[in-house]
């Protein structure tokens, strides 16, 4: 036996059901929108990293920053986010920064030494830190 839903539900009941469904869809959408806006807000606030004045020569990882100190003392700094899928580079091996996720490697100048990453690391500007004699890096996390 096939039931006719138009006769089973009264117009008021159908209207209430429709409003309930619309409310649930709206609440889900609003929740997703709030979560997305929080994510965007946290991504836009750069992280401040204080680099010490006595950084070792060569490559080092200072949290979200990869720093290369040349023998002359000049510094190059890059975000430690891998340009493949965004993992954080976590170690230096053979004079290259290495991604733990898929094995990309980067030269001290930020260029790709080995894929799958195909783009160089993002450069980070350094400012002198007058209070410590080191440097301040502001990097997107
Ligand atoms: S995220 Fe770094 S190699 Fe894939």
CATH class of the largest domain: Mainly Beta
Order of helices and strands: HHEEEEEEEEEE
Mean pLDDT: 85
Overall morphology? elongated
CATH H level of the largest domain: which superfamily?
Answer: Rieske [2Fe-2S] iron-sulphur domain
**Unreliable segments (pLDDT under 50, ≥5 consecutive)?**
none
Count of β-strands = 10
Cα gyration radius (Å): 26 Å
- Helix share of residues? 25-40%
Q: What is the name of the CATH architecture of the largest domain? A: 3-layer Sandwich
Please provide a written account of the structure.
By secondary structure, the protein is α+β, with helices and mostly antiparallel strands. It has helices at 5-8, 11-44; strands spanning 47-51, 58-62, 65-69, 75-79, 91-93, 96-98, 105-106, 112-114, 126-128, 135-139. It binds FE2/S2 (inorganic) cluster. FE2/S2 (inorganic) cluster (FES) is lined by residues 82, 84-87, 99, 101-104, 116-117.
Defining key terms:
single chain, 141 residues, alpha+beta, Rieske Iron-sulfur Protein, 2 domains, four-stranded antiparallel β-sheet, three-stranded antiparallel β-sheet, 2 helices, 10 strands, 27% helix, elongated, binds FE2/S2 (inorganic) cluster
Secondary structure layout:
Layout: H1 5-8, H2 11-44, E1 47-51, E2 58-62, E3 65-69, E4 75-79, E5 91-93, E6 96-98, E7 105-106, E8 112-114, E9 126-128, E10 135-139
Antiparallel strand pairs: 1-10, 2-3, 3-4, 5-6, 6-7, 7-8, 9-10
Bound molecules: FE2/S2 (inorganic) cluster.
């Amino acid at each position: 036996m096939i039931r006719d839903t138009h006769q089973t539900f009264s117009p008021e009941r159908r209207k209430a059901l429709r409003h309930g469904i619309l409310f649930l869809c709206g609440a889900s959408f609003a929740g997703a929108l709030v979560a997305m806006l929080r994510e965007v807000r946290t991504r836009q606030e750069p992280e401040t990293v204080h680099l010490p004045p006595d950084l070792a020569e060569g490559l080092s990882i200072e949290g979200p920053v990869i720093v290369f100190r040349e023998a002359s003392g000049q510094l190059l700094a890059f975000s430690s986010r891998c340009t493949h899928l965004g993992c954080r580079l976590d170690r230096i091996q053979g004079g290259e920064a290495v991604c733990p996720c898929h094995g990309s490697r980067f030269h001290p100048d930020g260029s790709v030494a080995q894929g799958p990453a195909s783009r160089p690391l993002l450069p980070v500007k350094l400012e002198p830190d007058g209070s410590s004699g080191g440097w301040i890096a502001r990097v997107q996390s």
